[in-house]
Amino acid sequence: MEEDKGCFHLASFIDQKDRLRISRVPVVQELARQGLHYLPDKFIKLRPDQPTTPSLVHEVNTFPSINMAKLRLGSEPEGRAHELAKLASGAQEWGMFLITDHGMPADVLYDVKDVVKEFFGLSFEEKKASVGSYANVDNMGYGRNFVKSEDQPLDWIDRLTMKAAPEGATEGLHVWPQKPNNFRQAIEKYVKESRKVFNDLLEALAESFSLERHVFVHYFHHKDSEVNVRVNYYPPCPRPDLALGITPHTDASALTLLMEFDTTGGLQVLRDRKWVAVPWPRDTLLVNVGDILEIMSNGRLKSPWHRVVTQMDADRFSIALFYNPPSRAEIEPVRINATMEHEVYKKVALRDYLQHFYKINPTSEKQAIDFAKVQ
Ligand SMILES: O=C(O)CCC(=O)C(=O)O
Ligand SMILES: [Fe+2]
């Protein structure tokens, strides 16, 4: 059977000899539609002795879940102190946590799911006509991430990436789907709501470490902080034991807010050198720490090494909002006492860090962040 039937994304990369190359990457959704019973070689990521099945999760009950209403200033003091302590220990231990009572209106979340499903329900031709594909422009558009060579094993995913903030970030670029016609509006409403959640969490995290409340959030002005949106679509995969939806990575954000549907399950995090399935109940949002907050917190918080596995009989969508200071900002690790605290990270220009991150990834272990370490 022909593998891609002419449906492919174009991904450009710089090869070993510094030449710009364009690679044709099959559209996974189209492969899945053909009902493949085997996994094309270029998607084989795992050897049979490295199964995707996570080790049994004993910690399910201890996975952090934070009630955001209790964190708000003015809520009952004892409950608030307890929630702050839970946030500090949960975020330090796992680098990710569930959030409940976040105040995000249900219709906003519903509309996001709706437009995303409608977009991925379009034919490949309609999708391509609806949105551009920009392998070169900050990974935006309808296409793929982290393609770096012709022979690199590929993730079992199609994705859509947009910059939702600051305003005007995608002006002149055709990166927002035109179809469904309320796509951009639905996502922008979600992004607007997410800012409150992000800012509240950044303040609460600072407070939970007994730092001044604004030490993190002061980098994030409404008019120039950045929110990148990545919509991930994982179609059913013929060999979940050999493929990955997303290769192991950390996020190049301060914080990432994740929503998932239609199926739950797939996200795994490395803990004590074992892959653990993240216990993520339906309709709950999940937050994870990215490299930028690891640097800003001088390593108090650690960005988790995570990956996504695929499923044989189910589609799964996730939407990641990546929250960052403006890329021209210089980020500096917080110090409680400049002379006392061991300096793990140094001041870096965010733009330089991101450039480095995208240049070296994907890597086989957490590595990009070494760029910002004090030698
Ligand atoms: O699909 C997921 O659950 C996680 C996605 C993710 O890690 C990412 O987009 O960076
Ligand atoms: Fe991620």
UniProtKB/TrEMBL annotation:
Molecular functions per Gene Ontology: L-ascorbic acid binding; metal ion binding; oxidoreductase activity
Keywords: Iron, Metal-binding, Oxidoreductase, Vitamin C
Domain Fe2OG dioxygenase: 224-325
Gene3D superfamilies cross-referenced by the UniProt entry: B-lactam Antibiotic, Isopenicillin N Synthase, Chain
Entry superkingdom: Eukaryota
Presence of keyword Cytoplasm: no
InterPro entries in alphabetical order: DIOX_N (IPR026992), IPNS-like_FE2OG_OXY (IPR044861), IPNS-like_sf (IPR027443), Oxoglu/Fe-dep_dioxygenase_dom (IPR005123), Plant_2OG-oxidoreductases (IPR050295)
PROSITE patterns listed in its UniProt record: FE2OG_OXY (PS51471)
Any Pfam family hit: DIOX_N
Protein family according to the UniProt entry: Belongs to the iron/ascorbate-dependent oxidoreductase family.
Name the record gives this protein: Fe2OG dioxygenase domain-containing protein
